[in-house]
Specification:
The complex is a heterodimer of chains A (about 260) and B (about 325). Chain A is of the alpha/beta class and about 260 residues long. Chain A is built from seven helices and 14 strands. Chain A folds into two domains: about 1-210, HUPs (Rossmann fold); about 230-255, no CATH class. Classes of the chains: A alpha/beta (about 260), B alpha/beta (about 325). At the A-B interface, helix 3, helix 4, strand 7, strand 9 and strand 10 of A face helix 2, helix 3, strand 7, strand 9 and strand 10 of B.
């Protein structure tokens, strides 16, 4: 079976994000870069599928040179090869451009199932998996917490508000991973050594035949709105403070 | 030329989700500024009868596809139907909810309509005749002001943030044929497993009572469940509590959990790690109860109590019970 997992390199969840003074983006200095946590669930599921059913796992990533570290991490976890789409035209690209690049790369290789993270924790846009599915003309099941391969189809669990859905989807398809799908493995030391020798194809936009025309653009980045200083309810008696809090929420905030 | 502000309304089992009215009201505001019409797309089976309700929230015209293949929701069927009617009518703006269904559908539509979208917006306005969509990025650690060069200019709106305002308009119902090709429908919902607890999802809750490492263990949550029952709230948890196995993953609020925006968020024993703050800082009012006065959660809180939560919370529950009696 031919399995693909798409990954993105993103700032660690604990990273402080500072907007550049001119609002053109965020400061990258001092950021610790990691594999997008949701993509890790996708890579792990791809590896489990391969271990059970045979086949190989190709990692595809769009990103600057540093994104190679993330591809190597996935290879160290056990994936077989990589495609690194590396071109400055994709810096700050919108979801459509990123999906177009991934689609162009994936069209050139055989695939049965493609795993993506349900969203990347940097731009939080959550669009790439679905656009990629559309560009490849295949179905999608997104935000999946349980995955089962059933021969010519897959069966997944997708939580929605107040329920979960059991969905069957024909192959080939795209599955976007949500937390809860699995517990991703750590790369072993021998895995890390082996990963250094695994093949990674580096391609630019021209090699893929992709042109980028920005559709959605972040015209300006701004810091989050500041919250006004809050009120600390003082005193020694927990009951009195609790009573004061209830009163404030009722009379001042009017939320209970 | 692309014209009109469109929404994709969301219904389940023949009843509108609240986000539909939030979308309609927001679209009305934008359309009034542009001097244009508000149209809605409604897909489902046996739903023609409810379509007119959207008129109460400012919709001029509702395009309805009523077809058994559109119930329950699947991406394939709904994306095909919505894309068809949108392409035929060329709206300037297309809004969806950033609900689980809306997120799935809107992203597929971006692909079908070859346009751009701002996801999970907390504000939208018109600037120079164009849509300016404001959205949290990096889970709210910064915000982006998004403009879209192509049409329709798409945005998905975060549930619970935009007010639903009654503003009666015609709500004229126009049926359309979604022209579904059975061969294109590759996904099938085999089963809908409803949550037996009947609790409101965190993303839709008006009040959330959330606990972190300070709850000391899964038993600690009993006092939060009691408070939640009194307030009609939903219980949430921090990543630390979920990773420790105290609460299910579906309860997690934060950058790798749910992004919530209730009217009231009560954080108990939550220190306020940046990835947690990222998931709840768009709450309208925040209360922090924590014995560590230095906890970062207090920098976000509107009201704070520095004390032992196991002493404060039961008293607070009693007070609320009295007030709400």
């Amino acid at each position: 079976m031919n399995i693909v997992a798409c990954v993105k390199q993103v700032p660690d969840t604990e990273a402080q994000i500072k907007v550049k003074a001119d609002g053109s983006g965020v400061e990258e200095g001092g950021i610790k870069w990691v594999m997008n946590p949701y993509d890790e669930f996708g890579v792990e599921e791809a590896l489990r599928l391969k271990e059970k059913n045979g086949g190989d796992v190709t990692i595809v990533s769009v990103g600057p040179q540093r994104a190679m570290e993330t591809i190597r991490t996935a290879l160290a976890m056990g994936a077989d090869k990589g495609i690194h789409i590396c071109d400055p035209v994709f810096d700050g690209a919108d979801a459509f451009a990123t999906a177009s690049a991934l689609a162009a790369a994936i069209k050139g290789i055989p695939y049965d199932i493609i795993f993506c993270g349900q969203r990347a924790i940097d731009d939080d846009s959550g669009q790439v998996a679905a656009i990629l599915a559309e560009l490849l003309g295949i179905p999608q099941v997104t935000v999946v917490t349980k995955f089962e391969f059933a021969g010519s189809s897959v069966k997944v669990i997708r939580p929605i508000e107040g329920a979960q859905l059991l969905i069957e989807c024909a192959l080939p398809c795209i599955v976007s991973a949500q937390k809860g799908l699995n517990e991703p493995r750590y790369a072993s030391l021998p895995g890390i050594m082996k990963a250094k020798k695994k093949p990674v194809d580096v391609k630019n936009a021209a090699a893929l035949g992709v042109t980028v025309s920005a559709k959605a653009k972040v015209a300006r980045f701004v810091p989050p709105p500041a919250r006004a200083a809050g009120k600390i309810i003082c005193g020694d008696d927990p009951a009195a403070k609790a009573a004061e809090l209830a009163k404030l929420l009722r009379e001042e905030a009017k939320v209970i | 030329m692309a014209k009109g502000v469109w929404i994709v309304a969301e219904q389940r089992d023949g009843a509108f989700r609240k986000i539909s009215f939030e979308l309609a009201s927001t679209a009305r505001k934008l359309a009034d500024e542009l001097g244009e019409e508000v149209c809605a797309v409604l897909c489902g089976s046996g739903i023609e009868g409810i379509a007119g309700q959207l008129g109460q929230y400012g919709v001029d015209k509702v395009f309805v596809a009523d077809n058994p293949a559109l119930e329950p929701y699947t991406t394939d069927a709904h994306a095909a139907a919505v894309a068809k009617v949108v392409k035929e009518n060329d709206p300037a703006i297309l809004l969806l909810g950033a609900s689980t269904q809306g997120k799935d559908l809107s992203a597929r539509l971006v692909g079908k309509l070859e346009t751009g979208m701002a996801t999970d917006c907390t504000d939208v306005k018109i600037a120079d005749g164009k849509l300016l969509a404001i959205r949290p990025m990096y889970a709210g650690k910064c915000f982006g002001e998004v403009v879209t060069a192509t049409f329709p200019q798409m945005a998905s709106l975060r549930p619970n943030v935009f007010p639903a305002v009654e503003n009666a308009k015609a709500g004229e119902v126009v049926k359309f044929d979604p022209a579904l090709d059975a061969g294109q429908l590759k996904t099938k919902v085999l089963e809908v497993q409803k949550d037996a607890s009947g609790k409101v999802d965190l993303t839709e809750a008006n009040i959330i009572v959330s606990g972190g490492r300070g709850m000391k263990g899964p038993e600690g949550y009993a006092i939060l469940e009691e408070l939640a029952a009194v307030l009609g709230a939903t219980v949430g948890a921090s990543r630390a509590a979920v990773d420790a196995g105290w609460r299910p993953q579906s309860d997690q609020v934060g950058q790798t959990g749910k992004i919530v925006s209730p009217n009231l968020y009560v954080a108990c024993g939550i220190s306020g790690a940046i990835q947690h703050l990222a998931g709840m800082s768009s709450s309208k009012f925040i209360v922090a109860i924590n014995k560590d006065a230095e906890a970062p959660i207090f920098t976000k809180a509107d009201y704070g109590i520095v004390d032992d939560l196991f002493k404060v919370v039961p008293e607070f529950t009693k007070e609320c019970k009295k007030l709400l009696a």
